[in-house]
Amino acid sequence: MAEDAVARTFGGSHAEIGKTIRLIIASPVHLVGDGLAATLRCRADVIVVDVIDLGPQGIAKIADAQPDVVLVDLGQTDPATAAQVIKTVSHGVKLVAFGLDETNDHVFACAAAGFCGYVARESGADELHRALVDAVAGRMHCDPHELLPSLSSRESEILALVEQGRSNKEIARELAISIATVKNHMHSILQKLQVSRRGQAAARLRGSHAA
After folding, report:
1. What is d(CA 79, CA 75) in angstroms, rounded to the nearest whole number?
2. Are the C-beta atoms of 155 and 189 separated by less than 8 Å?
3. pTM for this structure?
4. Fewest Cβ atoms nearer than 10 Å: which of 4, 7, 84, 164?
């Protein structure tokens, strides 16, 4: 399963994050978006601000609302394209994916693009809600299985880029952070994976692709 290769799921609660989650749902299929909105409106700590597609009008609504999280249907959308257009108008927003092909390459493409959560199609309402809570709390979320130790959202992004062969300089440019920050994250990644070289960390990730 693709989700085996992403970071550990942590439970979350409204008490943990201490705030109401302002959510926009982005899907080209109105019935899907409306169904998710109806499910999540039952949660006391979630406000569904709007249901949109990622056309110009939808992007303008994200810019106006500045939500905490955008839940993005990737069934017909490239992760990098979706992340770029959303983050252009709302830099601090958290992105959670659903509806993508559940292969390792697609899941890790989401991590590299800046998504901090992924929910499988067969997930229920509780799992979806937990993904939103984890996103706001700054934790990488996937469905329950794991192969790699727990990495933060940023560490998962960086490791995915390392696995693609990117240098520290290229990663810094891609993520708009300093090279020193990349090095600090790499140090943390190496410690968590209990390896001494970035090539070994990339090999761990490649090994998880085959799991």
Report:
1. 10
2. yes
3. 0.64
4. 84
Q: Assign 3-state DSSP to the chain and report helix, strand, coil percentages, each to 5.
A: 50, 15, 35
pLDDT tens for each residue of the chain, 211 residues long: 333 333 333 333 333 445 799 999 999 999 999 999 999 999 999 999 999 999 999 999 999 999 999 999 988 888 889 999 999 999 889 999 988 766 666 777 777 788 888 887 777 888 899 889 988 887 766 543 354 566 777 888 888 888 888 899 999 998 889 999 999 999 998 888 888 888 888 877 765 544 4
Instruction: Dig out the tokens for 41 from the structure.
Output: 């409106």
Which distant-in-sequence residues (6+ apart) come within 8 Å of 49 by Cβ? Answer: 22, 23, 24, 65, 67
CB 140 within 8 A of CB 156: yes
Q: Which two tokens stand for residue 53?
A: 């597609």
